[in-house]
Write a structure and sequence with these properties.
about 190 residues, alpha+beta, six-stranded mixed β-sheet, 6 helices
Length: about 190
């Protein structure tokens, strides 16, 4: 143990005598530790931690390739054909999109997902408050409804439970808020 303490004292004396080398060594260590932390955070979130769904190992994404567009979801007709012929999978359509929120406050561009009523039971996700989409709300011609993400609900409505039933305007269409997603899926 005495030898270890002597070596540490010697190393500190050498580092004190060479401040340029010391600064480069500390900066190199800081960058290395920071890069490793960032990489581990991404690996942990993407590869190690389970998805926040009841059976994430059984989920898959169906895409199509087109000559001019690398990867897209299947067209509605192809999806219906897949759903009707599938004997092994439960299928639910969903599509990422952006929408503009107008009305109360400043206009805001939002990341949104258009989803069918079948998506939430398939993922095993229930609404935190209110309800997820129903089969009646999924039919053509039904009044547009929205399920708000947890973060958006907290930020825009202050987490007020009475936001259910209120109307929001997305891309010039009025949607009735029917529920809020739990924090883990927002």
């Amino acid at each position: 143990m005495d030898t270890l303490w002597q070596d540490l004292r010697y190393a500190l004396r050498v580092l004190r005598k060479n401040p340029g080398f010391t600064a480069v060594a500390i900066a190199t260590l800081a960058i290395g530790i920071g890069a490793n932390t960032a990489i581990f955070s991404v690996v942990n979130a993407v590869l190690l931690r389970d998805l926040p769904f009841s059976e994430p190992q059984s989920l898959c994404l169906i895409t199509e390739r087109m000559p001019t567009i690398p990867v897209v979801g299947p067209s509605w007709l192809n999806f219906q054909d897949l759903r009707d012929r599938s004997r092994s999978f439960d299928l639910a359509p969903a599509r990422n999109t952006t929408m503009t929120l107008t009305g109360a406050g400043d206009p805001e561009r939002l990341q949104a997902q258009q989803a069918s009523a079948a998506l939430f039971p398939l993922l095993g996700v229930a609404a935190l408050r209110g309800h997820t989409f129903t089969a009646e709300e999924d039919k053509p011609g039904a009044a547009p409804v929205a399920l708000l993400g947890y973060g958006f609900w907290q930020r825009r409505f202050g987490g007020a439970p009475d936001a259910i039933g209120k109307s929001i305007t997305l891309d010039r269409t009025a949607y009735t808020v029917v529920g809020f997603c739990p924090r883990r899926t927002s």
